[in-house]
Amino acid sequence: MAAQQITIDQLDKDQIKSFSDFLLSYNKLSELCFIDCVSEFTGRTVSDKEDKCALNCMEKFLKMNQRISQRFQEFQMLANENAIAAAQKLGGGK
């Protein structure tokens, strides 16, 4: 029962951390695109130019994050393969 509660608590912490990371990323995206794209504060509406800029900014940001994630996964897989090969060398040398 105690082990099950620890697992549930860890899942809750992981979910909170994941949501927190998402919010940080979303806030960063919003800040960057707002700074880059919004230039007119005299009207109540968003101009077509600002709207297009914000959409392009968002697409680039998301594509960049996706590419970074892919590269990180590739790096992790390579590091894991190297660790397994090194462990096999050490194990096979005895």
TrEMBL record:
Heterohexamer. GO terms for biological process: protein insertion into mitochondrial inner membrane; protein transport. This is Mitochondrial import inner membrane translocase subunit. InterPro entries: Mito_inner_translocase_sub (IPR050673), Tim10-like (IPR004217), Tim10-like_dom_sf (IPR035427). Mitochondrial intermembrane chaperone that participates in the import and insertion of some multi-pass transmembrane proteins into the mitochondrial inner membrane. Also required for the transfer of beta-barrel precursors from the TOM complex to the sorting and assembly machinery (SAM complex) of the outer membrane. Acts as a chaperone-like protein that protects the hydrophobic precursors from aggregation and guide them through the mitochondrial intermembrane space. Coiled coil: none annotated. GO terms for cellular component: mitochondrial inner membrane. Belongs to the small Tim family. The keyword Transcription does not apply. Its main location: mitochondrion. Residues 15-74 form the Tim10-like domain. The keyword Repressor does not apply. It is a peripheral membrane protein. It holds the Pfam family zf-Tim10_DDP. GO terms for molecular function: metal ion binding; protein transporter activity. Keywords: Chaperone, Disulfide bond, Membrane, Metal-binding, Mitochondrion, Mitochondrion inner membrane, Protein transport, Translocation, Transport, Zinc. It is found in: Mitochondrion inner membrane. The twin CX3C motif contains 4 conserved Cys residues that form 2 disulfide bonds in the mitochondrial intermembrane space. PANTHER family: MITOCHONDRIAL IMPORT INNER MEMBRANE TRANSLOCASE SUBUNIT TIM9B (PTHR13172).
